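Progress note, sequence design subtask.
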């Protein structure tokens, strides 16, 4: 999983000096992949109902150095992609979906991993 996330970050152009927004409640692989890419993980709060990224916290954490949002789908529940994707696109950010904990999950008829940029 760490390598998959690292490759997604590198393929998306994340480099040293960039920031990547990640959920505060996640596996160590999430932050490790960001660090291995040379970027800085920026931890943000989660939603208490789904344990996934809180879009309001993501919005507040975006800086000029932010390059990507790494949305981790957890416990079979997907992050709020209907909010996160337009947010990422409006700011020119990459949205990466980590689907390791949401095999077969669907949101608005779409499978986990089929909504974000990677």
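Output:
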């Amino acid at each position: 999983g760490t390598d998959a996330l690292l490759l997604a970050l590198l393929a998306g152009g994340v480099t040293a000096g960039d920031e990547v927004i990640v959920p505060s409640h996640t596996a160590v692989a999430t932050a490790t992949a960001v660090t291995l890419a040379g970027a800085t993980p920026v931890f943000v709060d989660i939603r208490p109902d789904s344990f996934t990224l809180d879009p309001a916290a993501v919005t507040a954490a975006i800086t000029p150095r932010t390059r990507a949002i790494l949305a981790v789908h957890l416990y079979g529940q997907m992050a709020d992609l209907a909010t996160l994707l337009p947010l990422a696109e409006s700011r020119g950010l990459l949205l990466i979906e980590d689907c390791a904990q949401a095999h077969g999950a669907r949101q608005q008829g779409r499978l986990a991993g089929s909504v974000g940029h990677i």
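The longest strand covers residues 66-72. Work on this subtask will continue into the next period as scheduled.
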